[in-house]
Amino acid sequence: MTDIKTEPRLQHLVVGSGEARREIAMLVRPASDRAAGPALMWLGGYRSDMSGTKAEELDRLAARTGRQAIRFDYSGHGASGGDFKLGTISRWLEEALAVLDELAPESVVLVGSSMGGWIALRLAQELKRRGAGARLEGMVLIAPAPDFTTELVEPNLSADEQRSLEARGYFEEPSQYSPEPNIFTRALIEDGRNNRVLTGIIETGCPVHILQGMKDPDVPYTHALKLVEFLPADDVVLTLIRDGDHRLSRPQDIERMNAAILGVSEGM
């Protein structure tokens, strides 16, 4: 019989004040075994939410292993409040830190997908800068997109998109994953420059496992190769999946994700 106390619970957390105030939705599965290992924290991608396939599978892995699972939606995403167009890396990083501070696990494994990989790396930097908070035990990055605004978006802007940024403060492009277009704002791009991580050695202080599809149309696998160059101080494993796309949500991809999570949790 399932222990109701260990089922994920919807919680809300207020971040910011005044005009910057927004309510963040969290789904938290309490640990059923305190000795099971570090909490698992999901960091989703741009326009993704905590009910996606990989996020749900992370929660199931936590349930099977007795661990705490932490999922949340960035402002402007999923069940959280706030205006998506106000979203920036700094704003979403602030929310990730607030969630981690609120739940205060002793130790944690960060699992970041696409943009969530960038947030995970920035979160590791902020935790190190603070010298306090949850102990980072490991990191799993799935099709990570650190610095995507400067590395992948800005260099490929069309003349029309540049004009739209200047005139309207944003531009739109069709999405493969939603009938609604992707929206990239001038604020997101400008803030992205201030959050770049591919500028020098990144010291996470923990093992890192990167999963990257070689047929990813959104984040080329060469971007993952570049990221590895900036992680010389960490124990890093890069798994290139020859037929993998950006989502990496197939059953075999989920198996790789779960194995990577357990691997970094137990030491590589």
Descriptive report:
- The longest helix has 16 residues, at 115-130.
- The protein has eight helices and ten strands.
- Strand 3, helix 1 (53-65) and strand 4 form a beta-alpha-beta unit.
- 35% of the residues lie in helices and 22% in strands.
- The strands form two sheets. An eight-stranded mixed sheet has the order 1-2-4-3-5-6-9-10, with helices on both faces.
- The mean pLDDT is 94.
- The chain is of the alpha/beta class.
In which range does the helix fraction lie?
A: 25-40%
| Strand order, sheet with most strands | 1-2-4-3-5-6-9-10
Rounded Rg: 18 Å
Please provide the count of β strands: 10
Structural class: alpha/beta
Overall morphology: globular
Low-confidence stretches: none
Strand content: 15-25%
Q: What order do the helices and strands follow?
A: EEEHEHEHEHHEEHEHEH
Set out the fold topology:
Layout: E1 9-15, E2 22-29, E3 39-43, H1 53-65, E4 69-72, H2 89-103, E5 107-113, H3 115-130, E6 135-142, H4 148-153, H5 159-168, E7 170-173, E8 182-185, H6 186-194, E9 208-213, H7 221-229, E10 236-241, H8 251-266
Parallel strand pairs: 3-4, 3-5, 5-6, 6-9, 9-10
Antiparallel strand pairs: 1-2, 2-4, 7-8
